[in-house]
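Supplementary notes for students who missed Thursday's class. We covered one full example, reproduced here. Read the sequence, then the structure, then the short commentary at the end.
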Amino acid sequence: FERPTGVEEEENPFRSVGGPRAIPGTYTVALTAAGRAETKTVTVEPDPILGGDPARFAAQLRAGLEWRNALSALNEMLNRIVSLETQLKNTQQALRDNAAGDTAAAAPVIRQGRDLGRKLKELKDSLYNSDVQRDAGQDDIHYLNRFHDRLQGLGFGLALAYAQPPNEVVEGRMKELRAQLDAYLTRFNELLRTDVAAFNKTAQDHGTPVLVAGAPVAVRAVAVR
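Structure (token representation):
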């Protein structure tokens, strides 16, 4: 996939840069920069013309936070898949370059790494289309939407609306996508528990680097006061 260059983009190609609309009110904001932290009080005013029912704001915010947390979990899973793929490629290349004919040590690790890489690619390709050129205008019209596109697209209305909770259609769509996301997360976490753990055992037994996989990925719960 194509992404702007930069340290953060290279380390986390999948990330959210926006969020749900805040409810009008007074907030305490903590700012940290250059090793210094400072706390300020800020006030978010309602639109002087539109106003807005606080209960409707709260309902919209809850829905927006649920969507944001779901998308964050999806992005984390995709970033972890990309990281694992990169680690596997580096390990396999190092083994090919330095095995010096010792196929007994290298072959099991390479074989298991190839199988794991295939499973990771299958999962990633079901979530995100890496062939789309994201900086090429409407290149995405040439491809079928995948899960990441559908979940991300659902949030546009939630973010742009003003004191408008999601209607029944949007609520139903969110429940449907959340159920699909839970299934994808279960599939990924099972890969961590089984295939990644098995690869690491084989790698350790043959004196090669293991994969840094991290903890299982989950959607954070929403708490709105």
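Commentary. The helical segments are 7-11, 54-98, 103-127, 147-160, 168-205. The CA atoms of residues 2 and 136 lie 10 Å apart. If anything here is unclear, bring it to office hours.
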